[in-house]
Each structure stands twice: as structure tokens, then as C-alpha cells.
Design brief:
There is one protein chain. Helix 3 links the parallel strand 3 and strand 4. This protein has one domain. It starts with 6 loop residues before the first helix and ends with a helix. With about 170 residues, it is of the alpha+beta class. Helix 1 runs antiparallel to helix 2. Strands 1-2-3-4-5 form a 5-stranded mixed beta sheet. The protein has 4 helices and 5 strands, in the order H-H-E-E-E-H-E-E-H.
């Protein structure tokens, strides 16, 4: 039995997620962000996050009930033979958003602060990871248009203190 997901299994799962992601992106990019797309944007974030897990040889488990403490759980055994586990709340930002995403974690509702601390939940934030070499333009309040060039979108992992912990996920354990 393998202590981490096999390369072939990971490759197969990544291909399935990329295919699902293409379907989601096609629906989202057909227009401006609008109400009723929250579920698709959430799925967008989850699919990107799953791909990162498999690329880093984690077993990836999905949430079975809504409003649970984590959308995904990444698990693998490190080189010392110890369990490495991350409980992840995946968030997506609409690919056609009208602002430059800051990549900041959403604050937790007071009702869930204690629960999330116990679970040591981290949050992933995905935006336009499928795109390469693109510009993003935003019309400012004063009427001017600000344009930024990106070589790629981003996915970032933040802890409860809004600290970037992406390197923890991508660390060679």
C-alpha cells in the first residue's frame, strides 16, 4: 500500500478536474458575474484546490455535507512517516470580477470561530489559474481604466491569521 497517492492516480484525477474546470469556466466566462453563480464559483475554487493537492501527491477528500468545516482534506505521509493533514475551505473568485483580487481570507463568522480554530482550517483562494499572460482591466470610480498584466492567475492558501501558508501545502514532506 502506498503512503501517498500514486503518480498515475494523481495524473488521472488532475485530468478529470481540469475537464470539469473547463466546463465551469465556460459557463462563468460567458458573461459578467451575476447572482446565482455562487455555487459555480465555489466549484471553480474547489477544482483548482484539488489539482494542487494531487500535484503535491496528497490524497484528496471532499466534503459530503454542506456547511461543514472544510470543503477538502489533504492527507499524506511525510518522509519521517508522520501524517500530514490540511483541512481546507476552498474559495473561488469569479474569473470576470470587476476588481483586482487582494487574495485576502474572508473573515469567519463569530459562530464558527471556535470550530475553525479546532479544525486548524486554512482557506484556499483561486482566481484565473487557468489563464496565462493576460491583462485585467478595471474601470475606476473616476472613470479611468486601470490595466494590470499577469503571467498567470493565482491560488493562495491562508491560515486563520490571513498569513500565506501556500509553501506548507507545496512543501516536499
Amino acid at each position: 500500500m502506498s503512503s501517498n497517492i500514486t503518480k498515475n492516480t494523481a495524473k488521472s484525477m488532475i485530468n478529470k478536474s481540469r475537464q470539469r474546470l473547463k466546463e465551469i469556466v465556460k459557463k462563468l466566462k460567458s458573461g459578467a458575474p451575476k447572482t446565482g453563480q455562487d455555487k459555480l464559483v465555489q466549484e471553480y475554487g474547489i477544482e483548482h484546490t484539488k489539482i494542487i493537492g494531487w500535484q503535491n501527491r496528497y490524497f484528496v477528500f471532499e466534503e459530503c455535507q454542506s456547511n461543514g468545516p472544510a470543503d477538502l482534506i489533504f492527507i499524506k505521509i511525510n518522509v519521517e512517516g508522520k501524517l500530514v493533514q490540511f483541512n481546507i475551505d476552498a474559495k473561488g473568485i469569479h474569473p470576470n470580477c470587476k476588481y483586482f483580487p487582494a487574495g485576502k481570507r474572508r473573515p469567519t463568522k463569530k459562530d464558527f470561530e471556535k470550530r475553525n480554530k479546532l479544525y486548524q482550517r486554512i482557506q484556499s483562494i483561486s482566481w484565473r489559474v487557468e489563464d496565462k499572460d493576460f491583462t485585467h482591466s478595471v474601470k475606476k470610480k473616476n472613470g479611468s481604466i486601470e490595466t494590470k498584466k499577469f503571467t498567470k492567475g493565482f491560488i493562495i492558501f491562508k491560515d486563520a491569521n490571513n498569513k500565506d501558508v501556500t509553501r506548507w501545502i507545496k512543501k516536499k514532506h
